[in-house]
Amino acid sequence: MSFGSDSLTLSIGQWAFKDIQAQNLKFDVLLTTQGLGLTAKADSINLALPIGRINNVNLQCDELVLLTQQFSCNSGQMAFQHQELGQQNLAFTIMGQPDDEKYQLAIKDLSLASASFTVNVSIEKNNWTLTADTSSALLTPLARFLSPYLSDKHVQLLTSWSIDGEVKLAVAMDGQRADTLKNLNLKLTATGINLSDTTGQYVTENVASALLLNLVNDNQDWQWQTELSIDKGQGYGEPVFIDFSTAPMTLLAEGQWQQNTGKIVVSNATIKHNNIAQLEGHFSGSVDHIEQLSLDLKQADIAQLYQTWLQPFIMGTALDNIELAGEVDLKFHQQADNYHLTLGLNQVFIDDADGRFGVDDLSGNVGWANYTHPVQTELQWKGGYVYAIPLGASHIKAQITSSSLDLIDLWRLPVLDGELQVNTFSLKRPGEEGTTWSFDGLLTPISMESLSTALKWPLLHGKLSGVIPNVSYVDQHIQVDGALMVKLFDGTTVIRNLRLDKPFGALPQLYANVDLLGLDLETLTQTFDFGKITGKLNGKMTNLRLSNWQPVEFDASFSTPEGDKSRRRISQKAVDNLSQIGGGAGGVLSRSFLRFFEDFSYQRLGLKCKLTNEVCEMSGVGEAEQGYYIVKGGGLPPRINVVGYTRRVNWPDLIERLKAVSKSSGPVVK
Amino acid sequence: MKIFKWLTGSVTGLMLVSCVTINIYFPAAAAEKAADRIIEDVWGSETAPKESSTPEDQSQFKQDQQNSMALAMLNWLISPAAAEANLNISSPAINAIQAKMKARHNSLSPHYASGAVGLTDKGLITIRDAKVIALKDRNTVKSLVADENKDRNALYAEIARANGHPEWQADIQATFARRWISNASSGWWYQSSGNWQQK
Questions:
Q1: Chain B partners within 8 Å of A203 (Cβ)
Q2: Nearest residue on chain B to A236, judged by CA atoms?
Q3: pLDDT digit string (tens) for A73-97?
Q4: B154 contacts chain A (CB < 8 A)
Q5: How far is A16 from A226, CA to CA, in rounded Å?
Q6: Domain ranges of chain A
Q7: What residues of chain A have any CB closer than 8 angstroms to a CB in chain B?
Q8: Which residues of B fall within a CB distance of 8 Å from A201?
């Protein structure tokens, strides 16, 4: 210890008081015009955690006031070196009334994470308040700075993210004793936020947001209120992408958090995504358990909602590329694992971009429940289509309970000029996968005129109808039990074992067996402008497979029925066309004397074609020398035989020939 | 007793016949050629000049050939109808799907080059590195990848079905998997036993 004229110098090698220890402490007390001036230096001081050890400490106070009940320092300076805080040069003001346990501390230029903070602390007995603010802090160093104070789990989470951005922060807190926070008010504005996790599942680019958070601690029961708005930049949270610059988002929420039990209550939350969607919700439960959740999506434009919030989740399904118009709303309620929901549709138009299906002016409610709670579904629409087949206006009423839907009333769906009547329809969807449905019904006659026109086929006459005992859908396969009957060309065509695989997939597959009975050849040949043939025709087509609605496989045979009593004549044009199909030259007849006859009588005619691999293996009604009979002459002369010689015909060529035949005007008879 | 012996012999013979005729071999070489034709059409000329098969491929191929030779002999002896197995890749359905894939390739091609999308060892494609795709394009690319895989799976199934052997689908898929990678341009990424490699 030494005394100067107006100063006092105190040097202490090592000094300890409670948790504080100092090395080479040196005090200089000066007498100044304002009072006392103090300079203190220490090589190092160990303070209580979380600060720990500080080195090269320099403290200076020019206006030190020491009174019996109060001390103060109005313009203090302090410099020190700290492992995490780095070199600090702060300005501070401190005032203390030890008898009343009242202290006030104001710090300026506290450098934390490359940002300059202003901190005010005041303590009165057990109560304290603290405010801290900075006009600009960078997120990267801030995250680095916070790491030592976080749990390992949080640090791991933090280091797996790349974090960049700038924040303006103001926080005000008060509490009791060192360990109890009573109130917290946080105001944060952030700009240029770029966040990304390692896999790129969650990313923000150049986001600007503002956050207000208010916390009140009532005996470990935290009441909170928050307000978040994001109005610039882009965000991606798999699979949703949001451009906040064009569609800003706001979140308002309040609730409680019980620290002891971990229970979270969100009593009121509103998320507003520009004019795309507004969602209100309530929640109670914990981080990993839902006790109760209600969501209410206010009426929204379905097109915008689909683009941002629906389409990304249903990618790869039949509904991932549709055009929509109309309005939709949703009410969802969940209690533990049980939920029910009602989706409201208002004048919704659906159009598949690939033209596979569509619905016009669809309105009503679609419900769903995964437990015994009953929900109604009632929908009506003005029209629609499946591929080229138009569907008429209809309505449907069903009841849902325990993940299954059952039709309440008979459902009539107009199809062209007929109707599909569905007596029962039952759908089950126990989980994400494994949707099954089945129905039985009736197809009231659809005219072949309308069907062939819709499908852009040659105009056909007749009726399509049938009883459908059961149609079932399991694992993307539709199976039609029973038989569909088509009254065609005055005969009967029966379609059995009809099966559809992935009807809206990349390559829809259709399988069926077809029987044709007593078709009238005259009507048939007139329809296709083939050249007149009279008589009857029976046929069988087994193992028919259409891939993408084109025939790629079948085993077909058509022939004159055994014991046919009808008049059997075949015209020149038809003979010529048949011989062309069989691979022969056209116009043979017109070059021979037979050209003088208009038609010929025949005993039997028929063709077999086994199509596989683009090749049709052909045969006829009987073997001929080196070939097969397509037409076997008989009855009254003149008779004629048509013999085919080509056994393997390229299917596309055959189709081309058939097309050419129906377009040609036939052989010229001279 | 003699009759019994004769019967056993004939039954064994019959069983052998039925056994061999059912086992139609997978035409590996034809499948490779078929795959290459489709790949060349879908990817166009920008892809790598055709590489000779890797040594591993060749040995596999050799073995297939040996197997097929042996089987062909047997088939010729026993049932000529079953010996010939070729692979047809032209049907309206296959052509339609091939056209769709070809049209899609223009959109996918830059993402192969950037490494965002890679070729899997299952003959499909997948998002390899989402981070190189601009945020706003990510869902578009995801949807392109989903559509492409839907088409590829349908293509493999259809080739197998069209050739009358739905059970060949896995073999066809495996052949395509090798050929897509073999035909890929340099710089593209592909999976090899679970790891990503760059051509």
A1: 131, 135
A2: B135
A3: 888 999 999 887 788 899 999 998 9
A4: yes
A5: 45
A6: 1-95, 113-251, 489-663
A7: 196, 199-201, 203, 205, 234-236, 239, 241, 243, 311-312, 315-316, 320-321, 502, 505-507, 509, 545, 547-548, 550, 552-553, 612-614
A8: 130
